[in-house]
From TrEMBL, chain A:
<keyword id="KW-0813">Transport</keyword>
<feature type="transmembrane region" description="Helical">
    <location>
        <begin position="265"/>
        <end position="284"/>
    </location>
</feature>
<protein>
    <submittedName>
        <fullName>Amino acid ABC transporter permease</fullName>
    </submittedName>
</protein>
<feature type="transmembrane region" description="Helical">
    <location>
        <begin position="25"/>
        <end position="43"/>
    </location>
</feature>
<keyword id="KW-1133">Transmembrane helix</keyword>
<dbReference type="InterPro" id="IPR043429">
    <property type="entry name" value="ArtM/GltK/GlnP/TcyL/YhdX-like"/>
</dbReference>
<keyword id="KW-0812">Transmembrane</keyword>
<feature type="transmembrane region" description="Helical">
    <location>
        <begin position="185"/>
        <end position="206"/>
    </location>
</feature>
<keyword id="KW-1003">Cell membrane</keyword>
From TrEMBL, chain B:
<keyword id="KW-0813">Transport</keyword>
<feature type="domain" description="Solute-binding protein family 3/N-terminal">
    <location>
        <begin position="37"/>
        <end position="270"/>
    </location>
</feature>
<comment type="similarity">
    <text>Belongs to the bacterial solute-binding protein 3 family.</text>
</comment>
<dbReference type="InterPro" id="IPR001638">
    <property type="entry name" value="Solute-binding_3/MltF_N"/>
</dbReference>
<dbReference type="Pfam" id="PF00497">
    <property type="entry name" value="SBP_bac_3"/>
</dbReference>
<feature type="signal peptide">
    <location>
        <begin position="1"/>
        <end position="25"/>
    </location>
</feature>
<keyword id="KW-0732">Signal</keyword>
<dbReference type="InterPro" id="IPR051455">
    <property type="entry name" value="Bact_solute-bind_prot3"/>
</dbReference>
<protein>
    <submittedName>
        <fullName>Amino acid ABC transporter substrate-binding protein</fullName>
    </submittedName>
</protein>
Length: 396, 345
């Protein structure tokens, strides 16, 4: 008998409890039911227990006055603000240190990773020692060290080290420096800067196309810088060139005026960047080493310098190996920023902690903190996955 | 931070699974009795109130209250297991039955007594929030602190009182908030902050025990203003009234003993006293122990093994200790203080 197509094999009549299809369905329904029941049981039991122990629940506390002060805020905040705003201040502080940390550790890590492959013996050794030193000591200890260094090594505000003709002051309260007084024109300068970014991007595309068709290179870096600085500057001139500055001044206990980068922030950022860049360096190094050495030989044969072959040939290809593990480093930096609490930087964990203690509503607050970290982490992953797809090898 | 998450997680698990229930009265006391030890949550370490000595033995005024409760229940003040808790962990720990009592210098407030599922059973120390400053700052009172940077521990009433005080006096400040007490003290002593604020008792302890050389005790002063009421009390779970009664009256027994002049030295002679009040207190005339559900010799055991309130105060925080805190508000009501025990009768 000839083999018939598989799809039309006549089904053998069996009892329903022996039918694999029906059994499959039954098991799946049972599993879903069990999971659902477990979830329901946990939630309802929690609520019941909270009520029986007379522990307040619900999210209404978010609208109440927080009543505590926060030392380092990016937005307007006072003890009269709500808990919701206090938590928002914490989220923004976490994002600030995470974003800066990601940018700086990528830069530093790439430099060190490439440096480790340098034919220069001393340079590659120094980079190697750096990686081993930072990878093998817990981050928390680095944070304590940097915080202690700042608070012990720098003098108090009254003996602050003044620099640049008494405009910048270093003390254990942070770095104080002058900033322009707020002016409506600043908003428009920001808009001009954004337009500048878009313009530079379009110019770069046009420049690349021209080089591909005519072979004429275009000085995109200097042109781009010109646009990015020139446009806001023009707007500033058009707005009457407001040049009033707010200068830091010692008044009473501390400096007023100007702006400050606080020691807690500095210690946290420096610690995170130095620590994470050691891991980034290893990822970059392994990415470059993963390439066939024919790639660098071919680049050399074309007459490219070492820097050019790294920038134009090796790194772009290595990115395919580098990006996926880099994602976890970015997630780590975000999560590790929660160690801030040990050195007093008011991040998300700090805000939530205080809120838990003042309201006693641990479950709600833990849910908020989980949701916040989850959404930040998922956003980073989504972006990195998108980027990974974009740079992936396209087979035509 | 990790520790706190463990405690919080334990609390959440307890809440999920429901073994922290307080379904019927007597459950907590039964658990303590069948376990044979009292689990007492103490703070991480404040000289004079709760601090483990070089042998790992916990000592202090707060610790003595746990010992008194143990003496009342078991007739032995040493049947206590001490669990160090941060100010963040302490309430979750008692909610989730990890400990039976918290003696972590917790301020008695309405919210804590109601919304947290807890009960305060009295006041073992009348405290208030103060400010510690280096003398070289030249500040003489708290009204001069406008613009100061203030070191403060997170998640306590301290942080709220501080903000309230500066708001009420139209002053501003910058907080530096660090969770670990050691770290916050070191930030203060290294000059990161102008002021360190917490309960005055704890400031006295810090000044007596933690000033790093070459600085000394005399380089620092506590400002005269006390900006809040911080009555410190033992905390138990809401629900077991009998256990709460024992904790409450163990403290009262120490106060009552001081009022009647019963000390750890003379308690044996006092058994022969003709004073009917003393006879009732020491169980020579039975009844009080039965009413409380403990041994008739409960007060005898407390005073014999722990001492009366005055003895404990002097030994741990008063003139007999490095802290040298005057009795002040914590004197008995008969001496013009606030410490007042309802009669044992």
């Amino acid at each position: 008998m000839a083999v018939e197509s598989l799809g039309s094999v006549p089904r053998v009549k069996v009892a329903p409890w022996n039918d694999p299809v029906i059994r499959g369905w039954v098991f799946q329904i049972v599993v879903v039911g069990l999971v659902g029941f477990l979830a329901w049981y946990l939630v309802s039991n929690t609520i019941e227990n909270l009520q029986r122990q007379k522990i307040a629940s619900g999210f209404h506390y978010l609208e109440r006055e927080a009543g505590f002060e926060i030392g380092d805020t990016m937005i307007e905040y006072s003890p009269a603000s709500t808990y919701a705003r206090a938590i928002w201040v914490g989220i923004l502080n976490t994002l600030r240190v995470a974003v800066l940390g990601i940018l700086l550790s990528t830069l530093l890590g790439t430099v060190i990773g490439v440096g480790r492959l340098s034919p220069n013996w001393l340079l590659s050794r120094i980079c190697g020692w750096y990686v081993e030193a930072f990878r093998n000591v817990p981050l928390l200890l680095w944070l304590f060290l940097f915080y202690k260094l700042i608070s012990e090594a720098f003098p108090g505000p009254r003996q602050a080290i003044s620099m640049l003709w008494n405009s910048v002051f270093l003390s254990n309260r942070g770095v104080y420096f002058p900033v322009p007084m707020a002016d409506p024109i600043h908003k428009w300068m920001g808009v001009a800067f954004l337009i500048g970014i878009a313009g530079t991007w379009m110019l770069a595309r046009w420049g690349r196309k021209r080089q591909e068709t005519t072979g004429q290179p275009f000085p995109i870096i200097s042109a781009g810088l010109g646009i990015l600085i020139g446009l806001p500057a023009l707007v500033w001139l058009a707005g009457g060139a407001p040049h009033h500055m707010s200068w830091p001044e010692l008044k009473g206990f501390n400096f007023t005026g100007g702006t400050v980068i606080q020691p807690e922030f500095t210690a946290l950022l420096v610690g995170l960047v130095l620590y994470t860049s050691a891991f980034v360096a290893e990822i970059v190094r392994s990415g470059i080493l993963a390439l066939h050495k024919g790639q660098s030989e071919a680049a050399a044969a074309l007459g490219l310098s070492r820097g050019q072959s790294m920038r134009l040939v090796l790194l772009p290809q290595a990115l395919r190996v580098i990006v996926p593990p880099m994602t976890s480093q970015y997630l780590n930096i975000t999560k590790n920023s929660s160690l801030a609490i040990a050195i007093g930087y008011p991040d998300l964990v700090a805000s939530i902690n205080v809120t838990i203690n003042q309201t006693g509503q641990a479950i709600e607050n833990i849910l908020i903190i989980m949701a916040a970290y989850l959404s930040v982490s998922l956003s980073i992953s989504a972006f990195m996955n998108w980027y990974n797809k974009r740079i992936a090898l396209r087979e035509r | 931070m990790r520790n706190r998450f463990v405690a919080t997680a334990a609390g959440l698990v307890a809440a999920f699974l429901g073994f922290s229930g307080t379904a019927h009265a007597g459950k907590d006391l039964d658990a303590v009795k069948s376990r044979g030890t009292l689990n007492c949550g103490v703070g991480i370490g404040t000289a004079g109130f709760m601090l483990a000595d070089s042998q790992g033995k916990w000592k202090g005024l707060s610790v003595d209250v746990c010992r008194a409760v143990s003496a009342a229940i078991f007739g032995d003040s040493e049947k206590v297991r001490y669990v160090p808790l941060t100010s963040q962990q302490r309430f979750t720990a008692v909610q989730s039955s990890e400990v039976d009592i918290v003696m972590g210098n917790a301020t008695y407030t309405l919210t804590r007594d109601t919304a947290l599922g807890l009960d305060f059973t009295g006041v073992y120390y009348y405290d208030g929030q103060g400010f510690l400053v280096p003398k070289k700052l030249g500040v003489k009172n708290a009204k001069e602190l406008n613009g100061a940077t203030v070191c403060v521990a997170p998640g306590t009433t301290t942080e709220l009182n501080l903000a309230d005080y500066f708001r009420a006096n139209k002053m501003t400040f910058k907080p530096v908030v660090i969770e670990k007490v050691d770290e916050i003290r070191s930030a203060f002593f290294s000059g990161r902050c102008d002021v360190y604020t917490t309960d005055a008792s704890s400031l006295a302890a810090t000044r007596a025990a933690n000033v790093p050389p070459p600085q000394t005790f005399d380089d620092y002063m506590i400002l005269p203003e006390i900006i809040s009421k911080e009555p410190l009390g033992p905390v138990v779970r809401h629900g077991d009234n009998q256990f709460a009664d024992i904790v409450r009256w163990a403290l009262y027994a120490m106060l009552e003993a001081e009022e009647y002049g019963i000390t750890s030295k003379n308690v044996d002679e006092m058994l022969k006293s003709d004073n009917p009040a003393i006879k009732r207190i020491l169980g020579v005339t039975p009844g009080m122990g039965k009413a409380l559900g403990v041994d008739e010799k409960w007060v005898y055991n407390i005073v014999k093994q722990v001492g009366n309130y005055g003895e404990s105060f002097d030994r741990n925080v008063g003139m007999g200790s490095p802290l040298k805190i005057p009795r002040g508000q914590n004197a008995l009501w008969t001496q013009g203080g606030l410490q007042y025990a309802p009669p044992i009768r």
